[in-house]
Amino acid sequence: MIDFTFTEHDKKVLDAVRAEALVCRGYARHYDENEHEFPPDELPEAKDFPPTMSLFAGRGKDDTSLGVMSMMLAAAQSWGDYSVRMRRGKGGLGNAALRAAGTPEQQKQWGHLTLAMAITEPGCGSDPSRVQMTAVLDAATNEWVLNGEKIFVTTGCRADGVVVWATIDKAAGRAGIKSFLVEKGAPGFVVAHKEKKLGIRADDTAAYVFKDCRIPRGNLLGGNEEIPKESSGGFRGVMKTFNMTRPAVAAIGLGIAQAALDFTREQLQAAGVAIEYGPGAAGQSALAQRFLELEALYEAAMLTVLRAAWLSDAGKSNNLESSICKAKGGAAVREITQGCIELLGPMGASREHLLEKWFRDVRITDIYEGTGQIQRLIIARDILGYGRDELK
Ligand SMILES: Cc1cc2nc3c(=O)[nH]c(=O)nc-3n(C[C@H](O)[C@H](O)[C@H](O)COP(=O)(O)OP(=O)(O)OC[C@H]3O[C@@H](n4cnc5c(N)ncnc54)[C@H](O)[C@@H]3O)c2cc1C
Known about the structure:
This protein is an alpha+beta fold. It has helices spanning 8-25, 28-33, 52-55, 66-88, 93-101, 104-110, 235-239, 242-270, 286-313, 319-344, 346-349, 355-362, 372-384; strands at residues 115-118, 134-138, 143-154, 161-167, 177-183, 189-194, 205-216. A four-stranded antiparallel sheet has the order 2-3-7-6, with no helix packed on it. The structure holds flavin-adenine dinucleotide. Flavin-adenine dinucleotide binds at residues 93, 116-120, 125-126, 152-154, 197, 205, 364, 367-368, 371, 373-374, 377, 392.
């Protein structure tokens, strides 16, 4: 049975995370306006908060499952400020790829590093099978030689290394694409610049260049004794990563949307607009009606996220559900933040408040980890039973 009732212990964990998130919110405007700066790893006012993982220590068998709780934590953190909080966290998207596709030895060797994930290139985004970056094995030195460019790499500047996609055989299409772990400092690996963005500006997003970059042969994820065509380090192995990261991205967007709803509710109530849950929408003002609609949208989207996480916790496939919650979440957070701006008028657009920033920050959640359109393609293929080549 699906049950998303949070235990008292879980509620305390979430309250603690929200308290810390509020500290991050205090820095939100500064790093939004000073994009060239990096938030510190430790904020002075937040240093006494316990690490999030230690809050999990006392969890019992009746507490909410780990995946579901992780989604709630992601939402609680981004409710404060997504990018400032992210800077303080350890690990990146590449760590999830390492866990999904690395051998136990590789996970042991690199698991402690913060790893970015670089798939996107100037000519390759939604269709990752078009990766142009090449990896050629130099049998004489037993090294891979990487050549190519990657753009929009989240955590790209501060990461210790990156899981990068490159093709070992362009003619083989998807089967030729493999993922490699490249540590910072590898010869020929350069962080070219930090990207400038619409939102999540405190987030560090980098562009990379690999020019005759040499890495040991053992850095192919999944192991490469025989360089199998479908090793776990290949296309399919790393795509598995997205089944938990897509719900997490949706949860992050929803945490920001929740902040926008909280702010809007406060402002409406301060202006004398009553929002009541008893009488139903029809008996209320147009402002309250619209607000209730936006809240209902939030609840519906959050339930799709929790369901995707719950399926994963239960050891069931969540390929379809992770795309559903990403598509639903990405669209919902755009509507919610825009709707909140409409409800508050000029106050919603003013830089005196964070609402206009939240509106900009959520936009990315409908783009990275697969755009809304790509999620709809995946959903349609799954429901209608089409293959990748039949519906694209
Ligand atoms: C802030 C930020 C951080 C990012 N972080 C990372 C990262 O860490 N690692 C990484 O590898 N990438 C990252 N990305 C890249 C991101 O994943 C891509 O931008 C995204 O996958 C879309 O690719 P694209 O920008 O090339 O758009 P395109 O693929 O060129 O798509 C353009 C538009 O066409 C639509 N479209 C494309 N194909 C279809 C289709 N078949 N049917 C219908 N519509 C379609 C898309 O939905 C989109 O609206 C990041 C991007 C940003 C902005």
